[in-house]
Amino acid sequence: DAGVIQSPRHEVTEMGQEVTLRCKPISGHNSLFWYRQTMMRGLELLIYFNNNVPIDDSGMPEDRFSAKMPNASFSTLKIQPSEPRDSAVYFCASSSAIPDTQYFGPGTRLTVL
Amino acid sequence: AQSVTQLGSHVSVSEGALVLLRCNYSSSVPPYLFWYVQYPNQGLQLLLKYTTGATLVKGINGFEAEFKKSETSFHLTKPSAHMSDAAEYFCAVCRSGGGADGLTFGKGTHLIIQP
Questions:
Q1: What is the b/e burial string over A71-97, where b = at least 16 CB atoms within 10 angstroms of the residue's CB?
Q2: Is some CB atom of chain B closer than 8 A to the CB atom of A65?
């Protein structure tokens, strides 16, 4: 079984550029989560979707961040414009129910110069 | 709102010794509790979870944890540490039932295994 797939695995960009992170959840899972991991703040929930509908985006840090889930097999997290403080590892996770086990992707390491 | 406190950002044990990683939680409703492990440059992998029923839960790689409601704790243990257990461990909580949401994580505990 393929797990959660994230792309790219690494992204290096310059301040002010648009960044798009992608996630493909496990087939059949109807809940999708985006987390951010930094040394200072640990793992933080940014937003989650249930049946492709955003349920809670209170963790999204600023209007520069946006997330979409156009269908059950794809989600994006976009940062526009990016800033150095956005540098972090971004994880996508999916689950078949809330609450239940969340399965994490390998993460995207974002570096904003 | 929920919160998780993991005591000790770093824990060092000798190979073969008992592993004890502490986790205390705060939740206004009955919680679901999880332990995840993260190896360097990898995503998080579920070790074990407590939802309902038996309060002592067993997970992968010989780990287990006990849910103690009176102490609001969910400590992770393993009788005998192995070098391959060296990793970052995260305790997490989410609300059970309707209106449930995403996971709230602790800050993590880095487990070091001394040969």
A1: ebbebebebeebeeebbbbbbbbbbee
A2: no
